[in-house]
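It is worth pausing here to work through a concrete case rather than discussing structure prediction in the abstract. The textbook approach is simple: state the sequence, then state the predicted structure, then interpret. We follow exactly that order.
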Amino acid sequence: MNRRKIILTSLAWLTLLGFTVIPAVSLGNLGYINGCDLVIMAVCVYMKPSVAMLYASSATALADLLLGQGVFSPYTFVIRALQGWLTGYMAQKGAKRITIVLVSGCVVLFGYAAATLIMYGSWQVALTESLYNLIQVVIGIVSSLMLVRYDDTFRNYIDKNTE
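Step two, the predicted structure:
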């Protein structure tokens, strides 16, 4: 990996951390709503699956710790790792963006529902948390799909600066 690629990946990682921490809206014991899905869905399509997995999981798990939601951090790490890997893998295989973001959103919804069920032992709590996650995921899906028209610009910039 060359120096420019490391710098671009680091800047993308800081962007993900920022979009996760700065606009966070607290939901008390249920975590928080943030902008990380937008960034993961928009950026991981340009990464190899292994890089996307580490990228998505590390920044969001750290954000949980920084925001006082450390109980979610291990679950977040696993859920976001799967989300990042699938997003990168599906993009690498040429899947359509709509398919990628829908699968990515489902990973988040089902992953956090399962995590909440494990932590609280209540499907009612898991359902309530899933409604909040649905809001975050839908915003992420719609926003990342709005960025599709800039794919060529992003890809050309990345290719030019990471040769």
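Step three, interpretation. The chain has one domain: 3-158. The longest helix spans residues 97-120.
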